[in-house]
Each structure stands twice: as C-alpha cells, then as structure tokens.
Write a structure and sequence with these properties.
alpha/beta; FAD/NAD(P)-binding domain; 8-stranded mixed sheet; 6-stranded mixed sheet; 33% strand; globular
Length: 399
Amino acid sequence: MTDHHADIFISGGGIAGQVSAAAFAEAGFTVVMADPFTPVVTSDDEKSDLRSTAFLQPARQLFDRIGLWPLLQPHAKPLEQLAIIDTVGWPPEIRDRRVFQSGDMGDEPFGWNLMNWVVRREIWGYLQQQPRITALYGTGFRSIVQRTGEVIVTLTNGDTVRARMAVAADGKMSPLREAAGISVSTTRYGQKSLAFTVTHDLPHDNISTEIYNEGGPFTIVPLPDIDGQNASAIVWMNKGPRAVELLNMPVPEFEEVMYARSTGLLGRMRLKGHRSSWPIITQTADRLTSGRVAVVAEAAHALPPVGAQGLNTSLNDVIALLELAEASPGTLGNPGMMRSYEKARSGDIAKRARVIDLFNRVTGSGDSVVQTIRLLGLKAVHDVAPMRKRVMRAGLGPG
C-alpha cells in the first residue's frame, strides 16, 4: 500500500478525467488520477467508445493551452457546416434542409470531429510522460474522509491519497459523487443510441448532418478517410426496442435500413467494426460541490447526444474549475473556491439540460403536430439571421 500526496485527486480516467489531469498539471498542480479500468485505445475492442465528439472552439482553445492539440489535430476533421434535414414517415421523406455555416461566426470551424477512442489513446500516452501526474489505471475510488484542509481518499487497492481537492469525473454512476452525499435528478426517455463507424460512396465535404425522424436524430459526423475511403461516425437514436433490434440485425439488412434512414445522402454506407449502444437520459447533480469535492462532466450532467453539447459542456466545467484554481492557487478546494465553481457552472448546466431535453423530445416525436412545429422552428432559426447567430453562439458555450 502507498500513501500518495498531491494537490488534486481525480476519480475517473475517461476523457474528462484525462483532460482535467493534463490541465491541472500544466498549471503547476500535482495530480493523482485513479480509474478502475485500463483505457481502451483501439477501435476493435468490444468496450471501445465508438462515439465521436465535435470539440467546439472553447474545447480546442483549452487543448491548445495545455499542450494537447498538437497530438489531436492530426486525427481531427474540421466541422465547417452543420446540415439539418427534416424527414417524416418510412422510408423517410425529406421535407426541408437547412445548412448552418461556421463562417457566420468567424474564420474558424464550429469545431473539430474526433473519435472518442482516439482521443483517449492520444491523451493516455501523453499522461505517461507528465511528472506531475500519477495515473493509477486498474484501481478506483473506494472511500473519502473530508477534513478542514484536505481530503483523504482510499482506493480499491488499499492505497491512500491525501489532496487539497477531489474532482469527481467518474461518470453517471460516480462513486465519488455518491460518497460526497450529492444526489441526482434523472429523466428517462426510453431511447437508446447506436454508435458506429461507416465508409461511404460520396464525400462528406466536412459537413455534419442531423436527419430528424421519429425516434431521434440520425447524425453523420465527418471523419478522416479510412483505408482510402470516405468515412463518418454515426450516432443513431431510436426508441429502446428498435435500437436493440438494429444492434442485433445482420449486417446486410442493417446496411439496407441504414441507407434508407440516411436518405441515401452519402450513397451506400458500409459498416466498419462493431456497433455499440448507449441509453439516453438527462441526469443532473443536485449540487456541484460538497466540502472539498467538485463534480464535473457526466458525474455532474449526462445529456442526450444532441448538438455536441455533452462532452463540450463537460470541458466547460474543467475550464471553470481550472481558471478558479489558477487565479488563487492558495485557496484550492477552500469553501470560497467551491462556491465560485458552483455559481460559475450551475446556471449554464441547468439551462442546457432544459433546452436539450425539449429538443430531444421534439426531434424524436412521431406526433404530426409536433413534427409541424419542428419544421417551422427549423425554418425560423435558420432563416432569421440574428436568431441563427444567437443560437450558434449559444451552442459554443458560456460567454
């Protein structure tokens, strides 16, 4: 057993935990990060995270600031346009199409698309070289004792960690959040999303596309070519039973259904690798702090995969906590800093959760009245320039 001493303890070694560790270490803090699982850093492992993320401008700025962007940029595809296609019926009938241009917001893309497993691989390699970071994969959080000036964490292998602040970045079922006595509020939709990668006949032209239909969006996210072929990541939301049916469907039949659902937009699509499935919920922590524990990312908020808000909202948590720590290193984990973090993030998280909840209900509805409202709303948001820019700016993050 080892007694570790650090400025910050991070529970969770997923993307949010990894980025948190890299960010605090770059700012001069010592970090112990623990996760019960070794990260999956290949695409063909059954546990691989086959989702992709469009990292928006604030996330890219954070990556630049802490030295991660040179590692990630070679694997990124810029998100220059977002196309929304509204459909009804089966096979889907296109009613309207609108394209949002990043040029409306400036010279940079909206974001940069990366596969989640690739991000984990690149940052995992980076963490091994950082002297201020002790990354303990294969051992997780067990218990915590909070004192006036520190926390004492016990890990599953019997090690202890003494730190000035603890960060819960350990997912929707966060054991550290629960140990800190923070409850959650959860909304379930009876939906699941499928995540997988495809190659396809036609180029994607760096356009991310969301195709609305009953059950939820079919989202096409551009990727770099795979073996010389056009490639995209797909997130396909459905009612739970339909998602399970699609998950287990033979590949040839699945590809036929996928072609119809995509409206043939990119020609024939061919499945690359396996399909994974994720439940769709909205879950928010009722508080973001307890003593010297701060809650971030999916431990603080799990949102439906709409509008690239999930992981980007998580990184906005990290940015806020980092800026507070850098502004006053001597108050790390103190009550005043914890109150400031709660104030900085709670309002934005609550607002985004409400908006995404409503958006998810509207985009996945099979009700004809709601579908008409959806179509009218799409036209209004796109065609009125001030509203379009306001919506796009809000999507990038707070401020």
